[in-house]
């Protein structure tokens, strides 16, 4: 049998692949001679190869040994699909000009990342479940929980990463697996690590708190037995604050840990590095603010200003409020409605009912962290001021230039004004360029892909303005059991099951 072999390269618009031809001529007599060729198409990563048979006339015969010899000549040593070779040899004509997978490599299995394992589950309970009573009602009075720990108690341990399993391409060459990433236990306040930094212990008796950068802290607890009033005053505490009554308008609570309010909050100012839980709800009358470095949980929000780096979880309703969440805004309780105001979430907004039959204007923004949107709005306002001031400076300089052309010179005070206006304009132009660069950066971040969604568990009424990144959609009809997402640059819908 006479054989020849040559190499071609496929360029075009596809990734470059190698094509190998192996021509075979068989038959005992010249008039019976039949010509066929074998072609091998190898993927760029050498993890897959396809075999193509070329033949123009007559019947062809191909043996398994011929194919194996061809594969060997092309350095294919691993993952050969013997059952495919058998099928081809049984009826070669059937596979002419039809690419057939002939060899598959074994992809590597990446290692698992290291993780932090907490000593008991209650420390990681992001959303304690309320108690369900015998009559089916839910007792939200029991959602407040404080995970207390003792001095010397183990809080967390580090689980090391795994190396992964190497793969192999069709030539038999090893494909290295990606190793798992190391994890670092981040100690906060009042905790200690052992020598190899794999175990974390509490240094005091107190409450565990997780800050937004995933540091683990243990804080002592400051407790107010009743309402916050003038006998207590404003509270600024390096730990967790528990108030067993209400927080009226005008008072301020600041905590390095968490804040737990068993009553209600009016137009007060609450700021916590950790989480904030308010049992009875927020009735702010557009006064004060509630700001948390992690999660905010409450029964309802009315005319409030609420902001959390993590989630905002509301069991009943959000009405005419400005609510911002770095991650999700969830309102899925028995009522679970959102009416009026502006809600901004980095990832998702979920509620049973959005808006009302009166089409009350309500703005829902998802797909970018609220702080980015607020920064972008601030930059846009400042750029408008800069451009207006630059326009006024240009007008003043034009007047001075015309005066100098007319008189041939400027008085000392006019020349001093000219220098001042020139320097001021240069400064404003420099500041404007910096702001414009930052504006473009934020716009790219807002336009980037994200798992943004708005989920309607029951109904959404007209009057809603949806904002995904920089895309806007006005709701002009009712939707029920629907999820809004961004697909291919458009706000699309799908049905919630």
From TrEMBL:
PANTHER family per UniProt: POLYMERASE-RELATED, RNA-BINDING PROTEIN KHPB N-TERMINAL DOMAIN-CONTAINING PROTEIN
Residue span(s) of domain Flagellar Assembly Protein A N-terminal region: 39-212
Organism from which the protein derives: Brevibacillus fluminis
Any matching Pfam family: FapA
Protein name listed in UniProt: DUF342 domain-containing protein
Source lineage: Bacteria, Bacillati, Bacillota, Bacilli, Bacillales
């Amino acid at each position: 049998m006479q054989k020849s072999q040559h190499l071609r390269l496929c360029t075009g618009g596809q990734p470059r692949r190698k094509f190998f031809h192996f021509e075979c001529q068989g038959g005992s007599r010249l008039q019976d001679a039949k010509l066929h060729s074998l072609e091998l198409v190898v993927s760029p990563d050498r993890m897959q190869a396809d075999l193509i048979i070329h033949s123009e006339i007559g019947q062809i015969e191909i043996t398994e040994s011929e194919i194996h010899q061809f594969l060997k000549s092309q350095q294919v040593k691993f993952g050969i699909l013997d059952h495919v070779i058998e099928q081809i040899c049984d009826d070669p004509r059937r596979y002419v000009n039809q690419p057939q997978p002939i060899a598959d490599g074994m992809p590597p299995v990446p290692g698992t990342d290291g993780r932090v394992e907490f000593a008991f589950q209650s420390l990681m309970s992001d959303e304690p479940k309320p108690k369900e009573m015998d009559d089916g009602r839910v007792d939200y009075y029991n959602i407040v929980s404080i995970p207390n720990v003792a001095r010397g108690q183990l809080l967390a341990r580090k689980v090391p990463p795994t190396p992964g399993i190497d793969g192999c391409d069709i030539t038999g060459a090893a494909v290295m697996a990606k190793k798992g990433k190391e994890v670092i236990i981040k100690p906060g306040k009042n905790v200690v690590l052992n020598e190899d930094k794999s175990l974390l212990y509490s240094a005091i008796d107190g409450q565990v708190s997780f800050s937004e950068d995933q540091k683990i802290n243990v804080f002592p607890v400051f407790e107010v037995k009743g309402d916050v009033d003038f006998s207590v005053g404003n509270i600024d505490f390096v730990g967790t604050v528990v108030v067993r009554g209400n927080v009226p308008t005008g008072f301020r609570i600041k905590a390095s840990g968490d804040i737990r309010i068993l009553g209600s909050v009016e137009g007060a100012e609450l700021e916590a590095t950790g989480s904030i839980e308010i049992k009875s709800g927020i009735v702010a009358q557009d006064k004060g603010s509630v700001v948390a470095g992690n999660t905010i949980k409450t029964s309802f929000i009315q005319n409030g200003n609420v902001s959390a780096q993590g989630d905002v979880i509301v069991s009943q309703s959000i009405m005419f409020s400005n609510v911002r969440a770095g991650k999700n805004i969830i309102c899925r309780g028995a009522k679970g409605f959102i009416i009026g105001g502006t809600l901004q979430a980095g990832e998702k907004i979920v509620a049973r009912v959005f808006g009302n039959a009166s089409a009350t204007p309500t703005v829902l923004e998802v797909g970018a962290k609220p702080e980015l949107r607020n920064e972008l709005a601030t930059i846009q306002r400042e750029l408008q001021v800069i451009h207006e001031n630059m326009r006024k400076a240009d007008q003043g300089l034009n007047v001075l230039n015309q005066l100098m052309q007319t008189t041939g010179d400027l008085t000392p005070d006019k020349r001093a004004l000219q220098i001042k206006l020139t320097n001021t304009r240069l400064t404003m132009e420099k500041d404007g360029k910096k702001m414009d660069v930052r504006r473009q950066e934020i716009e790219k971040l807002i336009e980037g892909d994200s798992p943004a969604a708005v989920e309607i568990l029951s109904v959404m009424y007209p009057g809603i303005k949806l904002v995904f990144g920089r895309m806007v959609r006005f709701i002009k009809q009712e939707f029920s059991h629907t999820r809004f997402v961004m697909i291919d640059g458009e706000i699309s819908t799908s049905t919630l099951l």
